[in-house]
Amino acid sequence: MTDTRQIGSFILAGGASTRMGRDKSLLELAGEPLIARTLHLLQRARLQPTFVGAPEKFATLALGAPIIPDHTPDLGPLGGIATALGHTRKSWNLIVGCDLPFLTDDWIRYLIARAVRAHQDAESRFDVVIAQNLAGLEPLCAMYHQRCVVPIAAALGSGTRKVTAALTGLRLDAILPEEWKAFDSGGLLFKNMNSPADYRRAREILEGKSKGQRPN
């Protein structure tokens, strides 16, 4: 079993949820808010996550995890990643968006173990361990080395807002679909939840699974 004591972990929870029309991190799936679902996922991997977002937003939830304010709340997920990497004292850090309801325990454990192995291999010096989909990289569930803080901060300073654009020039250990689909043959692993239609579909799938039903 991978020793996770030297792994940092952060949940980005500061999105505006414009397309959803309400705060998607607080929407319930299978009986718990999505933000709590994400927290418990990482805790099952023996991590001690920190939220990046507005502390007052989660004050009433009593989630029992530390919250740090996003230093650049208007700059999207890239600003949250920069905040997390500027805060951490760990070499490797799992950074996850709060709107990925289909992430699994097995995938999180695999991602952590892969980063640890990369760190132990003297011939490889990856900066980011990240899944790659047919449409591109999946940066909101990835392992980031703390040294990424400098180039990511520089990218923000130059006006970059897209996370994948900020990763240009970094050394990526890209996990291809034929590898990560072993953890999710249906290809939903990185499907995020942006709209009311996404939320309805996620509820159908996840609540159907919890009842032992197959969604239509």
Q: What's the CATH H-level homologous superfamily? A: Spore Coat Polysaccharide Biosynthesis Protein SpsA, Chain A
Radius of gyration: 17 Å
Major beta sheet, strand line-up: 5-4-1-6-8-7-9
The proportion of residues forming helix, as a percent range, comes to: 25-40%
Tell me the distance between the termini: 37 Å
**Total count of domains:** 1
In short, what is this structure?
The protein contains seven helices and nine strands, in the order E-E-E-H-E-E-H-E-H-E-E-H-H-E-H-H. The protein has helices at 34-44, 76-87, 105-120, 149-157, 163-166, 177-180, 196-210; strands spanning 7-12, 28-29, 32-33, 50-52, 67-68, 92-97, 128-133, 136-145, 172-175.
Structure in words:
Helix 2 packs antiparallel against helix 4. The protein is α/β, with parallel strands linked by helices and 216 residues long. It is 33% helix and 19% strand. It has a single domain, classed as Spore Coat Polysaccharide Biosynthesis Protein SpsA, Chain A (Alpha-Beta Complex). The protein has a 7-stranded mixed sheet. It is globular. Strand 7 and strand 8 form a beta hairpin.
